[in-house]
Amino acid sequence: MKRVFLVVLDSVGIGELPDAADYGDLGSHTLYAASTSQYFHMPNMKKLGLFHIDGVKEKFPEIANTTFDGAIARLAESSKGKDTTTGHWEIAGIISEKPFPTYPKGFPEEVIREFEEKTGRKVICNLPYSGTEVIKDYGREHMETGALIVYTSADSVFQIAAHEEIVPIKELYRYCEIAREILQGEHGVGRVIARPFIGSYPDFKRTANRHDYSLLPSRTMLDQMKEAGLEVLGVGKINDIFAGKGITDTVRTKDNAEGIEKLIERTKRDFEGICFVNLVDFDMVYGHRNDIDGYAQALSYFDEQLPRILEELRPEDILIITADHGCDPSTPSTDHSREYVPFVAYGDLIKSGVNVGTRKTFADIAATILDYFEVKPEIAGTSFLKEIRKK
User: Fold this and answer.
1) Is the pTM of this model over 0.70?
2) Domains of the chain (ranges, CATH numbers)
3) Rounded-to-integer distance, Cα 31 and Cα 40, Å
4) Residue closest to 53 by CA, chosen among 308, 364, 359
5) How many Cβ atoms from other residues are within 10 Å of residue 10's Cβ?
6) N or C: which terminus of the chain carries fewer CB neighbours within 10 A?
7) Backbone CA torsion sign across 98, 104, 106, 110
């Protein structure tokens, strides 16, 4: 029974891409930035080979002449962009030639007007904003007037923040569905995101009831696996990112800790196919807030839990650990960064100490996974299964 556990450490980039300057991200290296914290400790990922990857080993000279147990690679992003949707879609075999639209000056009047008409509520803010700052600055007005806080970021997102006592969760989700219907074509942002919060001014706090509404992707690895009769288990926001397309089973999570527990639960389940996991705290809680120590602690926590995952792997299982973009917490920017991402694979069938260098696209992951399940890839990417699999 073949199983692949594909874990995305959201935003754990490993160094600037050649075109990083075009995105304002020169010098970004998320993993190295986190390693400058006293709380950074990843001996288990070190053993699997994370620090031997090109672009990482140069930052950690102490690993020279040491061995590792996994198969590794550095993956470049071929798509235009540096956001969650673009990154995950490329991991699943879609290369986005055109970036999703962004709105550095806020959304155009016609979009906001149509949204107000269809929801029956006024909009306030309509600017790029930090998620924690926007509720601090607009939360009181929202509670007094019932107007919806609409904001964006450097990413292609239309975010709606509302207090759970003013706008019930189901109603906020309905507003997001309305926005998703409006935001198509020219204004087809990657995601519409519900951002509920609680509390009273000035101590508002976002809740775990976030919900993402993505555009519908074209054909992906997930669709091919599902059509082949294989299981596609989503953990965390995977189902949201792919708008449910190609997913056979899903569970939402409130944080990394719960995501890891749900992953471990699924290692104990009999199924043939893939378990696709997103651990979002690195990005959402720490990267966007430039919290180096918090980012380091989150990485160290994952590393501490990794043996629990490894001990559940069966003879035909493959564990793949990767990322979708960067979010360097040490740079002035609080936005995502245009970076390479790691590829670390481990399992009884995987060669030890193999470094396949730098790959041209994240989509090579999708092609490699489909190759393992003997499904002919009908997506972007090139399989490198033969290079990492034991004979």
Assistant:
1) yes
2) 3-99+216-388 (3.40.720.10), 109-214 (3.30.70.1250)
3) 10
4) 359
5) 24
6) C
7) negative
